[in-house]
Amino acid sequence: MEFKERPILILINSRPFGTIFNFEGWRASIGMFGMDHEPTMLFMGDGVYALLKDMHDLHIRMFKSTYLSFDGKICASKRSLEERNISPDELIEEVEILDEVAVGKAFEENDLVITF
Hints:
alpha/beta
């Protein structure tokens, strides 16, 4: 079986508090780089709370800096932000805001979607 690099969408839709799923999404995305895949993180639903500037969780800050050191792409659903009354100004600087069309393209352009 031949190994093939694949674009992978890591979908984070769980909140960053009360469960470990959000953290595990960050960790899995970093691991994908170690396997020569190209992960893109997309935050939707309550997952967008992990992108707030005032999120003081050490684990998310650590994962974010490591992920960005690999030139990872972090995206957030504009609709999810609007539904939660979160302004893009409240998010960390490295986040690309995607409208509904761009979110659809993100799902189409990746070979695999892993949801956390």
